[in-house]
Write a structure and sequence with these properties.
- The N and C termini lie far apart (about 40 Å).
- α2 runs antiparallel to α3 and α2 crosses α5.
- It is built from 5 helices and no strands.
- By secondary structure, the chain is an all-alpha fold.
- It has one domain.
């Protein structure tokens, strides 16, 4: 047989792209990675709805994952990307030790206001993520 040898993995990705408009993961590694990402999103969404983590922390954890999932989930994760973008200057976690106590008092007020402002939107998005991820495909 003459001609080019077809890379089956590449051919499958191209076929999937043509059918779905997205680059599809087809390798075993990619499938395992997708399951890990989906489980992580579900875990964080449940934590947010349960009040175990804040809106800003959840947004920082979820927003960047929109590039790693299918469009239906990515469309919901954009909510968290937006919240993260609007609150990225607010100190959470380990960076707080770099701030002075006086500055943190002011920032903590802004954090509380942002948490209140974005809570309903974030809870609605998290609830939708839970619905999408718990519903069998």
């Amino acid at each position: 047989m003459s001609g080019y040898r077809v890379n089956q993995d590449l051919a499958e990705r191209f076929r999937c792209f043509l059918e779905n408009g997205i680059v599809c993961s087809v390798s075993k590694y990619d499938a395992e990675r997708q399951e890990q990402i989906r489980a992580h999103i579900l875990h964080v969404a449940r934590q947010l709805v349960a009040g175990e983590i804040g809106v800003i922390a959840a947004s920082r954890d979820l927003g960047y994952l929109r590039h790693e999932v299918e469009p239906q989930l990515a469309n919901v994760l954009v909510t968290f990307t937006g919240i993260d973008s609007e609150t990225d200057a607010l100190p959470l976690g380990h960076v707080r030790k770099e701030w002075s106590p006086d500055a943190l008092k002011h920032q903590d007020k802004e954090i509380a206001e942002a948490e209140d402002f974005y809570r309903e939107t974030a809870i609605n998005a998290a609830t939708e993520l839970i619905r999408l991820l718990e519903t069998p495909s």
